[in-house]
Each structure stands twice: as C-alpha cells, then as structure tokens.
Specification:
This protein is an all-alpha fold and about 325 residues long. It is about 85% helix and about 0% strand. The protein is built from 15 helices and no strands. Helix 1 crosses helix 3, helix 7 packs parallel to helix 9 and helix 13 packs antiparallel against helix 14. It is globular.
Length: about 325
Amino acid sequence: MIDSDPRAQFLAGMDRAARHWLVFWTGHAHQQEALLEARGHALRALAWCATCDGSLDVAIDLALAMHGHMMWLGGWHEWQALLWQLFARASVAADPERQFALRHHISTICWRLHRLDESIALSEENQRWAISAGDRPRQLQVAMGLAETYLNAEAYDRALACAEEVAALAATLNALAQEADGLIDAARALLGLDELAEAERRLQRALSLAAAAGDVTYHAKAQLFIGHAAARGERWDEALRWFEAALELVASYGDEVGCATIKSHIGCALMEFGRWDEARRLLEEAVRVHRRCGNLPAEQLARQRLRELETRRAAAYHTTQEEAST
C-alpha cells in the first residue's frame, strides 16, 4: 500500500535519494569528474536529510563519504556549517562512531581555518572516547589531528609530544604511512624549537617510511618539509629542488589546495634568486586558490610574501641603479 501522507512520502523520497547518492559516492570515490556532476544532487539530498526527521544515519554516512571531495573543492565554511548541523542531531541520536567521525572532520576544518581552540576541544572529546573504548586506531587519528593543530598554534612542545605519540602508536599498529606522518610533524615541531639537525634526521626517516608504504601523500609531505629544513639552513638551491619534487607529486593526485601551499613556498624560495616574475605568478595563484577555499591563514601568508617580494624587488632595483651610477 502506498502511504497517502504527503510528508511521509517526501521523507521516504529523501531517504531513497540519500541512499542512492551514498552508493554512487562510494562507488566513484576516486572519479572526481563524475563526482562533480553529481555533487549538486547529492548536496540537495544531504541538506534535506540533515534537517528532516529520520534518515540521520544515512545522512551522516553520505556526508562522511563526500567529505574528501568537498574539502578538495573548497568552500570550507559552508561545508563545515552543514557538518555542524548534522552533528547537532547526531549528538543526541547517532551512534558514538558516527559522532566521532563528524567531530574529527569538523576539527580538521577548524584547524585549517585557524579556529584552533574549537579544533582542540573537539579532538580532546574524541580522544577521551577513543581511550575509554580502547580503540588504538582512533587514538592514532586523534593524535595526528592534535599534532597538526598544535603546530598551527605554534605550541611546539605540545606538538612534539603529540607527534611522538603518533609515531609510537603507528609503529605498534604497523602503520608505516602514519608513522612517517608522526616523524614529519615531530620534525616540524623541532624546526620550531630550532633543532635543525634532529629535524632533518627524522625527515629522512619519514621519507624512507613513506616510500616503503607506497604512500604518495606522505612522501610529498616529507619532501615538502625537507625543503623547509633546507630553507631554514639557507640552502636555497636544495630547498627549491625539494619543493618542486613535492609539487610534482601533489599535482599528480589533484590536490589544488596542496599545490597552492607549495607554490607559495616555491615563490618564497625564488625570491632568494631574484626571480621576481616567477615568484609573483606563483604567489598570486596561491592567493586565488586559498581565497576560494576560505583558507584565510594561507591566503594571508601568500599576500605577506607578495608584499615582501615588492619590497625586495624595489630594493634590488635601487641597488642596481646605485651601482650603475658609480
């Protein structure tokens, strides 16, 4: 018998739509063009399910399936608002695992947007749950997020402690890629603490682990921060080579935001060689991408580097003019 209640029919239709797009999304997880075409339909189904009675679990599952694609596209503020809307319902009606996953994704967006206190609070709540559940993989996931957040807050001692916890937990789980990430984040903290030699030692170990794991993401991350360490030592030729190697890898898996971040660093390195036009082009591209995503801290850094470029370019020009007149 067909339900004659229009509201019930509508809710059932939304539930079917969400389930359809969940199956589609999980079946096309790495096909970005197909996902782009389907995104509008899936978002409409998700938005309705997020606000209507029923369908909470399938709505959360659809949001979790879509998360990587939505972060890749940008528009982080709007996506986070939808996740918060889901979480408001999940906190009283969903199972703990789904609550954990939503908190984790919201926390990740928070640190990317430099809303660090929010990110830490969400991660610490997840940490308490994971420890009480004896869930070491989720403890690892939380520790990775906390290390990144403390690095963004420039709380290097706390970041180092979290990163070393990541490396230790990952080693017990035989998770080579995550162990590499722990070593990379520990090295970043050590750079903040002016421990260059130890940072470089850990980065080389991370590079080896990422290669052994066959994980291109962490391989690129290791290359990027080896470049940072070289720059810290004012070895600019070496830094530029590592940055460009990292950019090639990140471009290979289509991470536009990651590419923009690396281009900002390459632009900074190119200034050391007086390659002003190349540096400006890369920095302007970084500003454009980060502005579209709502990544204000990264956008501000690229803009700051553009101002530095103009100042240094003008100074170099005046020096050349003075030398020519003497």
